[in-house]
Write a structure and sequence with these properties.
Blueprint (H helix, E strand, L loop, with lengths): L2 H4 L5 H17 L6 H8 L3 H10 L4 H16 L3 E6 L5 H15 L4 E6 L6 E6 L2 E6 H7 L2 E2 L5 E2 L2
Parallel strand pairs: 1-2
Antiparallel strand pairs: 1-3, 3-4, 5-6
């Protein structure tokens, strides 16, 4: 029912932005005149407005039910926190989100945090599980040998 809208929600920031737009629409749905249409055109991103317009039908009560249901669906999405050494592009976020959905088996919101100290790779925190797949961790664990073959910690 909400699949097309949820395809646009990849990150925690996306979810927050959409939630704000849905709140504005919920306030406007019962107002007289074309307040709902004005909010849809002026305060909701065009791509979101197009999808909502195609999915939402019926009287104001049915529209409000749809909007409340969508908000509840978004609030129920789990979040995966990912630390990266760089700010990813939107295209990278989309590919990463698709990969996570395919491998986790569910829609997951990404919360991306930039941490340059990682050098590369990622640190993931998801549903109580933690994984450090960063270059900095690999370098910390790397064992060096001197010319005589003695191991040192770097």
């Amino acid at each position: 029912m909400y699949e097309e809208v949820l395809k646009m929600v990849r990150t925690q920031d996306d979810a927050t932005k959409l939630d704000d737009e849905l709140d504005e629409l919920l306030v406007a749905v019962y107002k007289t005149g074309d307040e709902f249409g004005r909010v849809m055109k002026g305060r909701v991103r065009e791509v979101v407005a197009e999808v909502l317009s195609s999915e939402m039908r019926g009287d104001p009560g049915e529209q409000a039910d749809y909007l409340r249901g969508l908000k509840k669906e978004i609030e129920g999405l789990p979040t995966m926190r990912m630390k990266l050494a760089f700010w990813p592009s939107r295209g990278f976020i989309e590919r990463l989100s698709d990969w996570v959905k395919e491998n986790v088996g569910a829609k997951v919101l990404l919360e991306v945090v930039r941490e340059e100290e990682l050098i590369g790779g990622t640190v993931i925190d998801y549903e109580g599980k933690y994984g450090d797949y960063s270059v900095s961790k690999t370098l910390r664990e790397f064992k060096f040998t001197d010319e005589a073959g003695r191991v040192s910690d770097g």
